[in-house]
Amino acid sequence: MSKRDLKIIGNNAFVEIAGIKNIPVKVDTGADSSAIWASRIRMNEENYLEFCLFGPKSPLYTGETLVAKQYNVKQVRSSNGQVSIRYSVPLKLKIEGRTIRADFTLANRARNRFPILIGRKTLQNKFLVDVSKVRIPRPPTFDNQRLNNELKSDPHAFHKKYMS
């Protein structure tokens, strides 16, 4: 498939995994691998990996336990430099009308805006990314000017209020 034949996607999208539709994902060409929010991760008696997608507080959470007979472990370095060991499982996902199989590391993404991150190994030879193409609008930006004015006005009071 030539680059001309590849579908163009933006820096975020909606996907379907395990029958769950309209899951917002972050497309991250800076990330090597893909990650999905998983909870209740455990090893069963047959040495299969069991887990639920998302967490109980997520509107996407179904409580359904998925069983992975194929899985690996992977060391992952986060954007802040921290290394963790995660399970990696193959999952089918539907993105922009195309069904593909991809490996996902299982992670707690409860604090992330997007419950799934799609990395470049999943995208390679399947999609082109146009970062100006946005499916999910970004939240409003922060008012940093007000904070900087407060900092300049009284650096010690600012530090005590926000940084201590």
How many helical stretches?
A: 3
Specify Rg, calculated over alpha carbons: 19 Å
In whole angstroms, how far apart are the ends? Answer: 55 Å
Biggest sheet overview: 6 strands, mixed, barrel
Model description:
With 164 residues, the protein is mainly β. It contains three helices and eleven strands. The strands form two sheets. The chain has a six-stranded mixed β-barrel. The chain is globular, with a radius of gyration of 19 Å. The mean pLDDT is 91.
What is shown here, in short?
With 164 residues, the chain is mainly beta. The protein is built from 3 helices and 11 strands.
List the keywords:
single chain; 164 residues; mainly beta; six-stranded mixed barrel; two-stranded parallel ribbon; 11 strands; globular
Topology:
Blueprint: E1 7-9, E2 12-17, E3 20-27, E4 34-43, E5 49-53, E6 65-68, E7 72-77, E8 83-95, E9 98-107, E10 116-118, H1 120-123, E11 127-129, H2 144-153, H3 155-163
Parallel strand pairs: 1-11, 3-10, 4-9
Antiparallel strand pairs: 2-3, 2-8, 4-5, 4-10, 5-6, 7-8, 8-9
Helix pairs in contact: 2-3
